[in-house]
Amino acid sequence: MNEQTPKGRLAMISLGCAKNLVNSEEMLALLTQADYEIVPDMAEADAVIINTCGFINDAKTEAIDYILQAAALKQERPELKIVVCGCLSQRYRRDMPTELPEVDAIMGTSNYEDIVAVVERVLAGERAVEAFAPLNQPVPELPRLVTTGPHWAYFRIAEGCDNRCAYCVIPSLRGPYRSRRMEELLAEARSLAEGGVKELIVVAQDITRYGQDLYGKASLAALLKELCKLDFHWIRLHYLYPEMIDEELIDVIASEEKIVKYLDIPIQHINDGILRRMNRRGDGQMIRSLFSRLRERIPALVLRTSLIVGLPGEGEAEFEELCTFLREAKIERAGVFPFSPEEGTPAAGMEDRCDGDEAQRRAGLVMELQGEVMDRWCESLVGQTIEVFVQGEEDGNLWGRSYADSPDIDGRVVFEGWAEDGEFVPVKIRGCENGELWGVQVDEE
Q1: Which residues pair with 39 in a beta bridge?
Q2: What DSSP element (H or E) covers 384?
Q3: pTM for the full predicted model
Q4: pLDDT band for position 445 (50/70/90)?
Q5: Angle between helices 18-33 and 115-123 (to 10 degrees)
Q6: What are phi and psi of 334, to 5 degrees?
Q7: Residues 350/352/354/355 CA torsion (nearest 10 deg)
Q8: What is the DSSP-derived secondary structure letter of residue 319?
Q9: What CA–CA distance (Å, rounded) separates 58 from 56?
Q10: Which SS3 state, helix, strand or coil, does residue 146 take?
Q11: pLDDT in tens, 53-106
Q12: Distance separating alpha carbons of residues 346 and 295, to the nearest angstrom
């Protein structure tokens, strides 16, 4: 920020996924460069920017709750301006001005670069400001103000999605799949490495399709080879779709030491009929074969997946097939969601819908099953010494993450030690409880 009086004080609330956080970081950088001051509390702000998620009902409810909190504050301070951007405003562009009249401006998901202009307009007194752009335009290359701390960062390589899963609204909110050019990605990665980032978390709605639209072929393996030449300690991969994981990609993941042996592969289900209804590519046998090959090729691999239960057509037999598969596959990490019928998706109009309470019950059963798998895996680490990425201190102990722990979604390792934040240290595991490991730091030798 320039040494001058700021143009205004702004608060940012970022909701939803890591990709949304990157958009928030881009807006923060643009606003800071434009001489606005960022404050932590909307009670201190001239304007609050709420970057929303609108993927499922829980996310929509959370976003609306934050907007209503800002609206309540505006009752006390009428001069407060409210800007809503992201997936919720993209999804409900027509409804939001009438349903939430307290909002001064709404923005879509394809024009975050317009944030400075929008803020200037609302602070100048304009109302009902709208900023939307076509969803198929190239991903703009924008600066970022990394908010995850100095030692790790998300790294978005593409925007949008072409998969058209029957239950998902993402293509209508984020547009078609658009890869960023490799030279732009490598320039950003070098900057992050030079800034002290030690763990790079590669994200997109589907990273395995990276480059198809630009180069005519999937190019994730080539990108990863270049990233591994840079000064990162860990490179973590999020959202690899199973049908696109080929032998070249497996070779790179297996051979490159910097790529952590933790793969987030959303499968959603294992039953062939349910996968067809979901409009997923491939079938249950393909998933079983892939997981078997990955386990064989990558020692100590930790798998994460996401699952949906209660999709229309899922009866007891289909659900039991999923449970049997999970008992056999022993997937170490899983997010389980009851089906949410989202308007505008094919699945929302399907018949044979599972009762909502029954879908919740099934989700609970799967989580219980997965909890047992996770507990056994954690117990297998007791007595071993593992590498831990130190993240902070709490109640007199240090804590950090192992290669098996992605930030904010997995567990952590609590330990006695003397390390500094951002260091990678050996920790001998002494025990585990509720998915959390605990141990003692040991000398490198």
Answers
A1: none
A2: none
A3: 0.95
A4: low
A5: 60
A6: -155, 140
A7: 100
A8: H
A9: 6
A10: coil
A11: 987 888 889 999 999 999 999 999 999 999 999 999 999 999 999 999 999 999
A12: 34
Distance of alpha carbon 290 from alpha carbon 243, whole angstroms:
9
Q: How many residues does the chain have?
A: 445
**Residue 381 scores a pLDDT above 70:** yes
Hey, what are 53's tokens? 């998620």
Residues 231-243 have a mean pLDDT of 96
Helices (H), 147-279: 170-174, 182-194, 212-215, 220-227, 247-255, 272-277
Confidence of residue 444 (pLDDT cuts 50, 70, 90): confident
DSSP 129-181: EEE---TTSPPP-------S-SSEEEEE-EE------TT--HHHHH-S-EEPP
Spatial CA neighbour of 31 closest among 51, 57, 1, 4? 1
State the Cα–Cα distance between residues 254 and 245, nearest whole angstrom: 13
d(Cα 88, Cα 109) in Å, to the nearest integer?
A: 9
Residues in CB range of 368: below 8 A, 6 or more apart? none
Amino acid at 125: G
Distance CA 11, CA 37 (A): 9
Closest CA to 156 of 268, 17, 12: 17
Burial 305-334 (b: 16+ CB within 10 A, else e): bebbbbbbbbeeebbebbeebbeebebbbb
Decide: residue 358, CB within 10 A, 0-12 exposed, 13-18 middle, 19+ buried: middle
Kindly state the average pLDDT of the residues 313-337.
96
**Dist. CA 423–CA 196, nearest whole Å:** 11
Dihedral, CA of residue 295, residue 296, residue 299 and residue 300, to nearest 10: 20
Which of 439, 309, 298, 438 lies closest to 369 in space, CA to CA? 309
Helices (H), 84-137: 87-91, 96-99, 115-123
Which tokens go with 175?
A: 């547009």
Question: What whole-number distance in Å separates Cα of residue 229 and Cα of residue 210?
Answer: 19
Q: Which of 58, 85, 4 is nearest to 360 (CA)?
A: 58
Residue 368 has which token pair? 């219980």
- CA-based R_g, the chain, Å: 23
